[in-house]
């Protein structure tokens, strides 16, 4: 798999998405079921109660046996991609990429995969300009729309409140919601939104982004840390504080994972320095379990 730095260095989100996803497409099985669709798949013997319109009468005339023509029917889904574009997503990892950079690559690759599966895919960006929403569509022009929205997304401010996100939960629409966020929230805004989306859409895949340098706390000596959303700063000795910081971080991550799974979310932590393959694998796994 290509590293996120190489993909980002392509400076072409469409190409990066295709390159990131192409390795999966060879081994991924399209989600299909047998039924009365358009593409012929196989014959099976007639059983009482079967639809007589699907009988192959020519075959019956030749063989004196009754067989039904079965087809393969696509089981497409609606995929709702959700991007957290709050200011904390501007955190920069040691590889030079921000969380927002990584999220752009990841969501673009997932959109590409979704289209290859025949799914209708949409995107919601929650950030400084409020809600930017592209409803799920399956037409060929949807990917360029999504790529443009991701490329022009900027991270600033805090995660919007319920008033901004209300249109997303206003009506029931069966979908797989894929949220990419660092889960930096003030008063459970992200968790509340995902809980409501789960109620109206059904499935939530939560991909929790963490920078490698915040996981390892790789800073050295005296440093000043600034909260990207509140602007507050803190001076400390990184080497001295590392053990306590890492202990508290692991405790918070454990509690966060348990709370998310308790709510029924399919929760996974992602390291922004690692390739996108794990996230794409989890996406395909979840997608195929609900097809």
UniProtKB/TrEMBL annotation:
InterPro entries: DUF58 (IPR002881), vWFA_dom_sf (IPR036465). It comes from the Bacteria. Residues 42-248 form the DUF58 domain. Transmembrane segments: none annotated. This is DUF58 domain-containing protein. Pfam families: DUF58.
